[in-house]
């Protein structure tokens, strides 16, 4: 397994990886046949993408006689999580929720998937409430409660700066 994996792959390289992930271990001949049917690619095209994926460290190559056996150096789940992490890292914080809602609305989900999402959202709510800073100011008879949500873009020092600015 390669230590260095270039996870930036093209749509065409994704197609090759889907075949490898589905088969675990596969020959170039099998990949060519599958993608010739699915994508109408010529064998040379498929072999070019296989070569690029080997260079990027995505595919492991093992010689078996005159043929090569290919397997993935990273499993599909890990790869998708890493790719999504990169995408979400570049999305403005205020758009992350809308992006997730859009993804969910377009996805086909089982009841089990929906239950896992509900549990994850409940956990996220509890964690978000714990990260909120509640400050109580007595104002004559009333009490004003201000919740300051710390944004990851602002950083950990935000709470102290806010306190200093407001003399707390």
Describe this structure in words.
This protein has 168 residues and is of the alpha+beta class. The chain folds into 3 domains: 1-90, Winged helix-like DNA-binding domain superfamily/Winged helix DNA-binding domain (Arc Repressor Mutant, subunit A, Orthogonal Bundle), CATH 1.10.10; 92-130; 133-165, no CATH class. It is 57% helix and 17% strand. The protein is built from 7 helices and 5 strands. The protein has helices at residues 11-23, 28-39, 43-55, 76-89, 93-106, 111-131, 158-165; strands at 25-27, 59-64, 67-72, 133-139, 142-148. Helix 1 (11-23) crosses helix 3 (43-55) and helix 2 (28-39) crosses helix 3. It starts with 10 loop residues before the first helix and ends with a helix.
Task: Spell out the key features of this protein.
two-stranded antiparallel ribbon; 168 residues; single chain; 57% helix; 3-stranded antiparallel β-sheet; 3 domains; Arc Repressor Mutant, subunit A; alpha+beta
Query: Strand-residue fraction?
Result: 15-25%
Share of helical residues: 55-70%
Q: What name does CATH use for the topology of the largest domain?
A: Arc Repressor Mutant, subunit A
Major sheet summary line: 3 strands, antiparallel
Q: What's the shape?
A: elongated
Number of domains: 3
Distance N to C terminus = 54 Å
Mean pLDDT across residues: 82
CATH H level of the largest domain: which superfamily? Winged helix-like DNA-binding domain superfamily/Winged helix DNA-binding domain
Trace the largest sheet across and list its strands. Answer: 1-3-2
Low-confidence stretches: 141-156
What is the N-to-C order of secondary-structure elements (H for helix, E for strand)? HEHHEEHHHEEH
Number of strands: 5
CATH class call of the largest domain: Mainly Alpha
The CATH architecture category of the largest domain equals Orthogonal Bundle
The structural class is alpha+beta
Q: Helical stretch count?
A: 7
Question: Over the alpha carbons, how many angstroms does the gyration radius reach?
Answer: 24 Å
């Amino acid at each position: 397994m390669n230590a260095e994996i270039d996870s930036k792959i093209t749509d065409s390289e994704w197609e090759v990886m889907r075949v490898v992930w589905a088969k675990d271990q596969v020959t170039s001949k099998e990949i060519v046949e599958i993608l010739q049917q699915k994508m109408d690619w010529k064998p040379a095209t498929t072999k070019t993408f296989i070569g690029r994926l080997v260079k990027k460290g995505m595919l492991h190559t093992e010689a078996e006689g005159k043929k090569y056996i290919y397997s993935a150096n990273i499993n599909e789940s890990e790869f998708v999580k890493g790719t999504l992490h990169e995408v979400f890292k570049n999305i403005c914080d205020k758009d992350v929720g809308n992006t997730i809602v859009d993804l969910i609305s377009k996805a086909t989900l089982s009841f089990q998937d929906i239950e896992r999402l509900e549990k994850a959202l409940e956990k996220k709510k509890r964690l978000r409430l714990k990260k909120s800073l509640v400050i109580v100011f007595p104002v004559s008879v009333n009490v004003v409660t201000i919740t300051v949500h710390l944004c990851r873009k602002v950083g950990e020092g935000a709470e102290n700066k806010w306190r200093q600015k407001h003399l707390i």
